[in-house]
Fold these 2 entries.
Entry 1:
Amino acid sequence: MKSSLVRISTPFVVFLGDIKDEIYGKTGFGVVQWRGTECVGQVRLPGCRVDTGVPDCDIAAARAAGAKSFIIGSAAVGGRIPSSWVASLREAAAAGLDIVAGLHVRLEDLEGLADAARRGGSRLINVRVPPAELPVGTGRKRTGRRLLTVGTDCACGKKYTALALARDLKRRGVRSTFRATGQTGIMIAGEGMPIDAVVADFVTGAAELLSPDNTPDHWDVVEGQGALFHPGYLQVTVGLLVGSQPDAFVVCHDPLRTSVEGWEAFPLPTPMAVIERATSLGRLTNPGIRCVGVALNTSKADPAERDRLLASYARQTGLPCVDPIATGTDAIVSRLLQEFPAPQE
Amino acid sequence: MKSSLVRISTPFVVFLGDIKDEIYGKTGFGVVQWRGTECVGQVRLPGCRVDTGVPDCDIAAARAAGAKSFIIGSAAVGGRIPSSWVASLREAAAAGLDIVAGLHVRLEDLEGLADAARRGGSRLINVRVPPAELPVGTGRKRTGRRLLTVGTDCACGKKYTALALARDLKRRGVRSTFRATGQTGIMIAGEGMPIDAVVADFVTGAAELLSPDNTPDHWDVVEGQGALFHPGYLQVTVGLLVGSQPDAFVVCHDPLRTSVEGWEAFPLPTPMAVIERATSLGRLTNPGIRCVGVALNTSKADPAERDRLLASYARQTGLPCVDPIATGTDAIVSRLLQEFPAPQE
């Protein structure tokens, strides 16, 4: 079996179950925000109080509208799947829709779902499960250009920043592809590599597979995972960095945190410390690696405080500093295109 | 299920199949060399031309001598298991011996073996398969002391150096335990963690589990894996380093190599470069980490050349430099005990 990425067919319908709070629907909102043109609608159960803004439909209507995948866009409290949800999954699978989930439970283990999928000729796609037969990293230089988002911690905007950079590069007429490494990212991109679920020996190889050779003017924007000073997950980040062999990276940082979230004995590193560490590690497979900007999450700051933070980090690092949600990423994109001019024809 | 290490019952008998060349019996020679007192003998098939030096026996005699495990100490050419070997495995499993293998094929997939194990009440132990339910690394400081062997490349003496250091510490009256991270090491130690087969997210946690809290005077000597400047495997090394949180490390180096074996585009790093990198990465979980010596593999050098090499690396690094096979590790052990005096009662 030739190994490849996890892949999701489109268009899709997003399933929200009966959740009451947007916080449980982050994946659903993500796929609608970033991939709305491929979304035929949302399926909600009675009692659901969350709305992603796309038209409501049932499974038959989704099928009629051409949907090929049924993306579970919400998480149930406690991580289990209520039986009322499973009934909808069976109906969708039996109707021929691939069921796509990023859950801790395997879809195959839900009652009757494997049978329904067999009847409907549909696939059960657990995006947390990496492809089989991954290669070992070779370190071979690939054609095309790559940018990686690198965090000072987990959950500080690496996915959003990568999505925004890929979008904003396209707006400038630069060919670019968002390369997903986590479950929500994979659902948004429609393909990707759940890098933290890969067996340790194959992390660099999986990262190489994720961003293959491309044309010289093309940018892969790779979603970062983990953090380089994280006592639990740094090995994932290091493997992704060396396998991605990025030309450029952007540091993502939450300026209000003081320690690694959930690992309070570990102080949060500064963006400068992460820039130095990522540069020295990344040189192994790309001697020209450099940082091109800092992305702050200033969602908890008021506008004046935000401006002060952005200016302060820009001064500390000598690099463009943005909040991708509040200010967009244009300043970083400009710096990137200045540092890496388009190759001559 | 509480997660734990891969564990092998003793005493054991070593199985060599019908191999013709010692190179295919490295595991068998390793377990006999390092664990001979727990080995009741060797089982060889007709045509075998390799001898580990322990008494020949058949499966019934091994059982009668108290053997609890049947360790496959040889690899077949091409990685497959010949059917003549499988017959012996079935016989041993049916006789109640645990079958222990570090092969790429799973023992469960060999014809009739699972049935034989059920009949005999024996276990099939694939030492390449990590335990289930591993934890995420916490970074919490553990009691007791730890030393890790760190290579400038793969296959340059990390296992042998760790075994020799643990043995030589014991000879000085210092409590120490060899902690195995690879298949042969696990067979020698009787337990361990196949660290490169662990899912990426859990490498630091698996390393923490491997060397738990201990008394303040005790040294865990952890077998290193991979290499910090290795484009394929560095993520394994980094996770093992940070999860082991070693107080001390020893750099293992083959002075005749010029590039990473099998990755010829990558120059071999110097021991000094590895010392700097391991120190800066290891500080995350142990700010006092330091290098206490260099172990060279000089097996291809004549005695004069060996002396010249040892002196040269000692000068470059300012550290004791040994060849564990040719000179023993005493110089490093002395340095270690000087840097880390026994705690006062």
Entry 2:
Amino acid sequence: MTSETIARLTGANLVGHAERSAGTPFAGPNPRTGEAGRLAVAEATTDEVAEAAREAARAAPTLAALPLDRRAQLLQTVADALDADGEAIKAIADEETALGEARLTTELARTSNQLRLFAEVVADGRFLEATIDPPDPDRIPPRPDLRRQLLPLGPVAVFGASNFPLAFSVAGGDTASALAAGCPVVVKAHPSHPATSERTARAMRQALADAGAPAGTLGLLQGEGVEVGAALVQAPEIAAVGFTGSHAGGRALHDLAAARPTPIPVYAEMGSVNPLFVTQGALAARGDDIADGFLQSMTMGTGQFCTKPGVVVLPDSAEAQSLATRLAEAAATHQGGPLLNERIATSLRRQLDVTRTLDGVEVLADGIVETGDGYAARPTVLRVTAQRFLAEPQLAAEHFGPVAVLVVGDEEERLAVARSLEGQLTAAVHAEADEHDGLDELMAILTDRVGRIVFDGYPTGVAVTHAMHHGGPYPATTSPLHTSVGSTAIRRFLRPVAYQSAPRELLPPALRDDNPLGIPRQVDGAWTSAPL
Amino acid sequence: MTSETIARLTGANLVGHAERSAGTPFAGPNPRTGEAGRLAVAEATTDEVAEAAREAARAAPTLAALPLDRRAQLLQTVADALDADGEAIKAIADEETALGEARLTTELARTSNQLRLFAEVVADGRFLEATIDPPDPDRIPPRPDLRRQLLPLGPVAVFGASNFPLAFSVAGGDTASALAAGCPVVVKAHPSHPATSERTARAMRQALADAGAPAGTLGLLQGEGVEVGAALVQAPEIAAVGFTGSHAGGRALHDLAAARPTPIPVYAEMGSVNPLFVTQGALAARGDDIADGFLQSMTMGTGQFCTKPGVVVLPDSAEAQSLATRLAEAAATHQGGPLLNERIATSLRRQLDVTRTLDGVEVLADGIVETGDGYAARPTVLRVTAQRFLAEPQLAAEHFGPVAVLVVGDEEERLAVARSLEGQLTAAVHAEADEHDGLDELMAILTDRVGRIVFDGYPTGVAVTHAMHHGGPYPATTSPLHTSVGSTAIRRFLRPVAYQSAPRELLPPALRDDNPLGIPRQVDGAWTSAPL
């Protein structure tokens, strides 16, 4: 099936109604063999990038003007189209990423369900934050009739991530939330899965057209180097950027966007080490379970999750030694799995060459990183004292792959390790009920540094829901106010507009007295769906 | 009274519990005389800036941990203290700004009422966005128990504005919303009113201490040049910046903040020309009223409002000529008023030297800008064709003072003028009811470029309310998602944290099953104040 489906792809950049392929060809990877992928993909030219941004800007007013129910329908249509084309998408994605059928099936369901969640958010209408304040001449200053709602920010550039070819790529959370906000999207596909990106984009573009969205609602740009993305972020029509990937990449885009004549927000999620803190009580009660659960979490997707727990902070006890032994033994016999591409494999090997030989580092499990015929890795487990960890900042850096660092120390040292952490997407705490009273200081430290705190569990697996926060202080993200997963991700792409003393016929529907959309609105401070 | 009250001030920087004045002294202006102000103020040293940021960081956890009702009480106490000290504050502010008793009385009431609005927002608790999603194992991916709320971002640097010594300065909207969010504030006082700033800060600091807030909740730094502000924005403890002022200043702070090792958000409101569009029907029906209302709006605070309407777009008609004549005559006999300081007066005079002599510019009213003994200006009214306006970008730049540019053209030209506009805080439209049908294109253009659209009125006077949006696309602000006035301004200083599968006793009160705070929460997608 893959051969046939890949043969149908063109490797072109999808720009408005057109296909463009004037640029130099390149190919994605085949992680299982180390050979080049079978699709010749055209690196987008500067002109093609500019055209994609212009087409998105041209689509913006039409897309923004679609009634909410049509916009919700559009998201549902896209979700259905992805499911309908799922077998082909998964087959291509598996060839390009080696993530396997089971994982890709889950990821596809997550991707289409995410679009459906945003369809619900749009249909509900509360995200518009329609707010009406009746006039009050007695206030200081006097209050006129004021009505406010959120509107789409404008065309959004979305960068696909290597490690989630579906859920954080062309049809991923950034795209879903931007479309839900009413913003056209130009995706810069990740060069690790260009064929998956094209197949996904074609399914989405057909569905968008069927649902009546204008051409330019979704564009796709291919590129192997950094030039295409840089040009896209600098295109004057682009109003915001969604990115999931490395710190170097996210920071570079942030800096480019901040230096534009008109700066724009960059929502970059750049990963973290997601520390796991285990108390003595938890070790004594369920150390083996924690060892097993942790290994499963750190090896999920061959450790290439931004939420992979990479540091485990433990007391200096016999039970911690048992956990380490069990983890090391299981890691030594773990078959490992594929890494996504040569760059990731080479970087991980080089990083490990340094960190495993640092002073005081014990190698408990010696994973192999293959960079020849195919890229693969088996789990590596290192151990250091808290004092050594605090002295070697390289141990606190993310290893993008199945690598964990156990850090052992007394309570004060463990709190010092927590305090030394930079901004994190997540932290996890394993503790017994009778120990909770003693966790105040750790909780305060983590709350300051972390976007999501997980109890007696593991941070991999990010539920797509209202209460999710997938974000965190820098360097976990460039924008600590926002999440890239969950229903509030839509806010990143909306801006308020207020109407003062507007005649009814010039008000947008969401703000009219009779509430023709039937949405919840904040009227004089209280939420109601009733007309004025 | 002023002599006595100024004599009681020290000109020191207020840092934690301490007063620091190691730096070079400077003085504020006396705009009525052109002489130096009577208070010798100590420019904050680099060490003092660093100390203020550290003291704010030290206060942060204690301030954040205050229960919501205590935080609300604290804001009310500060509001009451400002009112109680109002006579002294106004007397000093009048000497430093020459804005006059009436205006300062209104501004003080606005300032304390703004603090009271935020006390209501805090007590209501909805701003925390407490969100609870019960577990659902059947979802893909499975949904654990997830609970999310907003928490204070950390110490905020606030820059006082020259033109609002109370409402956008030490006790202004940025400070009120940051304290409401639970963030300590370090204010960089504007050098145009250092004594007002000190008096205000002392009243607030006493009230904060009385209400049990930690030292470091409000710091005050004085500085004449850009160095103090630059050092403050670069202090590692500072988590966000609120600024109201010039484009050059706001952009410089934005760029500094973006280049930090840890970038932080800068909410800079940088003014705009706030165009007013008047239709032929409105001119015919009420041209004289519009001329009079416009003159009052453009001369309010001697034209030194960020919402001052600076451009009026008119049809090429006899009625537009009548409006121009009436406006010119009234402007010629208008007494004008004081400008805030020598820099503003000199800049305005230099700018007018250029713009009034541009090709095609008619000078309808020739205001004088005094830069010698006292700074004052009378209204200047210029007129150009739309074609000349479009050809001369300098005419679309803000004149900070009582200057207006009338732009005359046919309908297509007027729409072209609208399209040529950069991001604006406001635009106003004057039209008759039977013309509303023809306004679709103008409305679409303005909605794209403007934060607030005012109908049949004037943009000066920014109500402090839920539906207000005082913001707009760049260059009106550096952050189009946010407002600096109104209850949603609090969001700028909050970030989400999610708790996954947390034991009850480790959850913050807002997220516990029994809802001990009794606040509205989003539970499984629906808002309720009921316990789980």
